[in-house]
Write a structure and sequence with these properties.
By secondary structure, this protein is of the alpha+beta class. It contains 19 helices and 28 strands. The protein has a 7-stranded mixed β-sheet, with helices on both faces. Strands 7-15-14-13-8 form a 5-stranded mixed β-sheet. Strands 18-26-27-28 form a 4-stranded mixed β-sheet, with helices on both faces. Helix 10 runs parallel beside helix 18, helix 14 packs parallel to helix 15 and helix 17 crosses helix 18. The protein is globular and about 80 Å long. It starts with 17 loop residues before the first strand and ends with a helix.
């Protein structure tokens, strides 16, 4: 990267390539009456114009390995690569213009004449579920694609009937735009009966399988190629319709087709996330212990089902349904609604921050209602350490944890007992100081593919190349994977390289996502390295003319025990005889933690400042402390971004996106999270050989509820009783003014 050799998608070029531009709908819901492309086709440099009726492609896939209430099946209305008959959100791709230059394609797009017949639109899930609401798809009655449930409804109902007290809270998990640094782009080609797609991806294998469903060819006839990817966060996990249209055009025209999207297209047409309304209730006994919990949620999935959208907003939410609490009576109902907005899918943490936010806001609220210390209220209901493995009501099994130990370490580091002194000091300065806690748990490591396949190939130079399915886009895979393999083989890290998505190799496995890369693929690579050592033992015995039992492997060398006769692994491997393929799969783990935040609010302006943030996390064994710390800092900041500034807003009359640029959509900035203190409390898992649980999404899963609880606590001092994210200065100031009146 420092020498300029890094290649992002737009850095790739192929001989004789053409350039693409997508014409998008300028309205949220309309019938396409006609499309006239004649003037565009006559524009200088234009090669072709494609509309939805021109493409012979199947629908983008979307599935869910679970049924809904009463056995209801997920309704997938389908999504074409280019809109047919109707447009269903502002930004829906309607036509693809291919030209000799990007500017010619863009200019010609303005010459495509489309006649629309406008139709009414709904942009919120509440509007979509209202009786008589306009249907997003005629095949989806009531705009509900699935009515999902999880847990034990009857047992939960009984717990509430026996409760001494019930506490309720409604929260709005706001809509956000992922906004990776690199906008979406692709270079599509059809080469030797193979589709080649250069694009930003979190893993070639998953995207290849999704493309296979649309193109109607086996995955082996598809290559997804990438080197550098400028951020992912879940919104680079799935296939997008533009990629399918570009591949179709490349085959039809017998020329590579390149498309580089704009930041405006990121806002309009990238998958967005969150946008869930939750009604939560806790059933408590007379001592303040949690007897049961239930949630009624509605998730806005946008105009079409993204491939992982239904999974993220059902199983991705309930896999930690009851959090860190020993509460077998838990139940959740989640209705998945369609609206005339951009499709929704994963964003850092996927569904787990939604569950953590809904639950930990509710738990903190209950502690306040009862007048009990928030830490001690939680402690009453923790799953004790001797009760693992612990199966929650949603059916998932936590393997290990020490929730009380994590809490105690965080309490001490935050100077919990002296908070009221800090609050009083802030009050003397005219500021409102609040404190919030979250004791979260999340599921990591799960994957859609049955196995994670890796390869290790030696070069004549003595360098070793690792091939793995999880693609790096900022996580440091090149470092940690090399660190693991180097530790086994005794080969210097700088001699080990990594490739994950190329035209010249084909491996299968799961993409980067769900904090799984180290625990899952890292474990497979480490085991593969051990297999390589084992394979080399017989070869070394033959070279050294000794019995296999007399050979030992120490620091990269095979040696006859008790002698100085030896051969290095590198010398033995240069001819390729030690190259290895290996596959395995390791499943879900459950990292957890306790986060404690303190904020101060300036009442005259509404400005909020994070003045202290303590995070104590159990990520299992930590392999690279620096990367873990950086992942935590990034996750904390993304959570803070959603709490304090980020919000995607659609106009309820026109369906237009009102926050379509950085002028209106405020991203987190450096220095947003101050006073960070990071601690670890590892309880190694036995579910993978590394004992690692994952850390990539821990920061956001803990920070969203902790920070918002702190904001609410601060505002409560001024009489504000109800407040939702984002906690922008204007919203805070308005809430304070209303509390005065």
């Amino acid at each position: 990267m420092l020498t300029g050799r890094g290649r992002y998608v737009s850095d790739w070029n192929l001989p004789n390539q053409a350039y693409a531009h997508f014409l998008r709908s300028d309205r949220a819901h309309a019938e396409i009456v006609s499309i006239d492309t004649r003037e565009a086709l006559s524009h200088p440099g234009v090669i072709a114009v494609f509309t939805g009726n021109d493409l012979d492609l199947k629908s983008l896939p979307a599935a869910l390995p679970a049924k809904g209430r009463g056995g209801m099946e997920l309704i997938n209305p389908g999504r074409p690569a280019l809109a047919k008959a109707r447009v269903r959100f502002a930004g829906d791709a309607v036509a693809l213009i291919v030209a000799e230059s990007a500017t010619a394609a863009q200019d010609a797009a303005e010459l495509v004449a489309i006649e629309y017949r406008d139709l009414p639109a709904v942009v919120t899930s509440a509007e979509a579920l209202a009786p008589g609401a306009p249907l997003v798809h005629d095949s989806v009655p009531g705009n509900i694609v699935l009515d999902f449930e999880s847990g034990d409804e009857a047992r939960t109902r009984q717990a509430f009937e026996n409760a001494a007290r019930v506490v309720k809270l409604d929260v709005d998990i706001s809509r956000v735009v992922g906004n990776p640094m690199e906008p979406r782009a692709c270079l599509a080609a059809f080469v030797s009966d193979q589709y080649h797609l250069y694009t930003c991806t979190q893993g070639a294998g998953i995207m290849r399988n999704q493309l296979s469903a649309v193109l109607g060819v086996p995955p082996e006839k598809i290559r997804v190629i990438a080197e550098e990817v400028g951020g992912g966060f879940g919104v680079r996990f799935n296939l997008y319709p533009e990629y399918c249209a570009a591949l179709y055009a490349a085959r039809k025209l017998a020329r590579p087709v390149k498309w580089s999207g704009s930041r405006s297209e990121v806002f309009l047409a990238d998958e967005q996330a969150r946008d869930v309304q939750s009604h939560g209730e806790l059933a408590l006994d007379a001592r303040g212990r949690i007897l049961g919990m239930r949630f009624d949620m509605v998730a806005n999935l946008g105009a079409y089902l993204a491939p992982t959208g239904p999974f993220i907003n059902t199983i991705g939410i309930v896999n930690c349904l009851s959090g860190v609490y020993d509460v077998p009576a838990a139940y959740a109902r989640i209705r998945l609604a369609l609206t005339h907005t951009a499709p929704m899918a994963a964003y850092r943490g996927a569904g787990r921050p939604i569950m953590s936010y809904a639950l930990e806001r509710l738990v903190e609220h209950a502690a306040g209602e009862l007048g009990i210390d928030p830490g001690e209220f939680r402690r009453k209901s923790f799953i004790p350490r001797d009760k693992f493995p612990y199966r929650i009501a949603a059916g998932f099994e936590y393997d290990c944890g020490d929730f009380a130990g994590v809490l105690d370490k965080a309490l001490q580091a935050s100077s919990w007992d002296s908070f009221e002194q800090r609050r009083s000091e802030a009050r003397r300065r005219g500021r409102l100081r609040g404190r919030g806690m979250a004791t979260y748990i999340e599921a990591t490591g799960a994957g859609f593919a049955p196995q994670d396949q890796v390869e290790m190939r030696w070069e004549p130079s003595g360098n070793l190349t690792l091939f793995a399915p999880t693609h790096n886009h900022g996580q440091g895979h090149e470092t940690v994977f090399a660190q693991l393999v180097s530790g086994v083989l005794g080969v210097p890290m700088e001699k080990i390289g990594l490739r994950t998505a190329g035209a010249d190799f084909y491996i299968t496995g799961n993409a980067t996502g769900g904090s799984r890369s180290l625990a899952a693929v890292g474990s497979v690579l480490m085991l593969a390295a051990h297999e390589m050592v084992k394979k080399g033992t017989a070869l070394a015995a033959d070279k050294l003319e000794a019995a296999v039992g007399d050979i030992e492997f120490v620091q990269g060398r095979y040696r006859i025990k008790g002698t100085d006769r030896a051969i290095s692994l590198v010398d033995l491997a240069k001819d390729g005889s030690l190259d290895i393929q290996y596959q395995n799969k390791f499943g879900a783990c459950f990292p957890n933690g306790c986060h404690i935040a303190e904020v101060e609010i300036e009442p005259e302006t509404g400005d909020a400042e994070i003045v202290s943030y303590v995070a104590c996390d159990d990520a299992g064994n930590v392999i690279n402390p620096q990367i873990v710390e950086e992942q935590m800092q990034g996750g904390l900041t993304q959570g803070a971004g959603q709490v304090f500034s980020e919000l995607a807003v659609y106009d309820r009359e026109s369906g237009q996106l009102l926050t379509g640029s950085f002028m209106d959509y405020a991203m987190p900035r450096a220095g947003l999270v101050n006073g960070i203190k990071l601690l670890d409390h590892p309880v190694p898992t036995k579910l993978n050989p590394l004992g690692a649980k994952g850390v990539g999404e821990a920061g956001v899963t803990g920070s969203m509820p902790a920070l918002m609880n702190a904001v609410v606590d601060a505002l409560r001092q001024a009489g504000v009783r109800k407040f939702e994210m984002p906690a922008t200065p204007a919203r805070i100031w308005k809430a304070l003014q209303e509390a005065k009146s």
